[in-house]
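Example 3.2
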Amino acid sequence: MLKESTVKQRFEMIEEFLPEIVQMIRKDLRQEHLKQDKEFLNAHFSGKNPNKLSVDELVQGYAPLLCEGGEEYWDFFADRWLRRHTEMYYFFEEKLREYDENFTELEILEASFAKQLASEAKAMFGAQNAYIFAVFNEVVFPKEIYDEMLAKARVKDEVVEEIKVGENPEVRHQREQRNLQSKFEKKLLGLQKLYDRDVSALKKQVAALQRKLAARDE
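Structure, written as tokens:
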């Protein structure tokens, strides 16, 4: 569904969740983008102190630009949000790689696999996070799966850790520690995968630029 989509189309899919996304990356917006781009700050926020901008003000300032298909802003939002959910990146990449080693070349996921993947992601990370991740990362779910994910994302949910009745407190503590360690490890692995992806994309861009320069010099 998202293979050939535009930034504007993708933004429309998650526009209603923009306040939650901004809440998550507000520090990056205030301390990176707005501090580095004074011209943008003056144009869209009347030169206000970035650190004092509320989530609502940030939403109102960036939403029109994202709606217009501003790829630069979309990439910033997606990158910073994904950096805070690297364990999700690890989960999705592992599942997709098991499904097809060349998963980045897929046009669309087979319905039964897509449904199972979406269900597992919801159970592990919550419906809203699973949906936002899928859109930001352009997971090629069929439209009907995206529609189901959106409906569930609109319902507030929590990822609740299973509590075993009668479990020894020490055993429970050890299990919780293992779960925390596993989550931390997956976040690090996901961060490494994101880094590898970014490096690969940069190499391709450099190679393309070199080809253009070589062709121009001929």
